[in-house]
Amino acid sequence: MSRRKAVSTGPADSSQAQDGQTHQGRSRALAGYAWWQDYCDLRERGWDWRKAVYIAWAAGPAATRRPRTQYELATKILGLTTDRVISQWAKTHPEIADEIARMQAAPLLQYRRDIYNALIAVAKDPDPKAHQDRKLALEMLGDYQPRSQANVAVTNVDAGVIIYLPDNGRESSPTEVQQEKEANL
Q: What's the number of domains the chain is made of?
């Protein structure tokens, strides 16, 4: 007695065919948007279609987004009645914000090596005009900290100058030193 695999031609097959047609129709409709390729990349990486649409849309430049608002995206593209669902995603799925940030940085990151190479090439030039590149490279490496960012406080006590460095082991701040000196007078 041979067993045959049952082939269903019932409702499941027709709904699958309908889903395929819906997906094809949706794909044709979305293909005209500037964020289409980002959407396709997100889908390939496993994002559900609605979240992929939102992420691709939100990652694009705000000035040129189409549709213009999150509400229009929700109602005209995603088939939602409001944009509350998108707001909920933001609260319950922090990975969405991470993905948006990653996608926004991606165009610059693809040139990261070229940028570093250009920085190195100019920083190595002994010309005084290249000092800003040397300074930037040393800041990035942690070998240089501009004075404006140094954690130093300077006060004038009796026409003398007290320089307070928080990491020099002193317990008192310059203000406390001044108050203590005034109290002893």
A: 3
Q: Which two tokens mark 133?
A: 């590149």
How far is residue 98's CA from residue 102's CA, in Å, rounded to a whole number? Answer: 6
CB atoms inside a 10 Å sphere around CB 59: 20
Integer Cα distance of 110 and 179 in angstroms: 55
48 and 99 co-located in one domain: yes
- The strand pairing partners of 155, in sequence order, are 162
Segment 30-67, tens digit of pLDDT: 898 999 999 999 999 999 999 999 999 999 999 999 99
Q: Is residue 179 part of a domain?
A: yes
28 with 104, same domain? yes
Assess contact for 122 and 140: CB atoms under 8 A.
no
> Model confidence over 73-128: pLDDT tens digits?
999 999 999 999 999 998 999 999 999 999 999 999 999 999 999 999 999 999 99
**Contact residues for 175 (Cβ-Cβ < 8 A; gap 6+):** 155
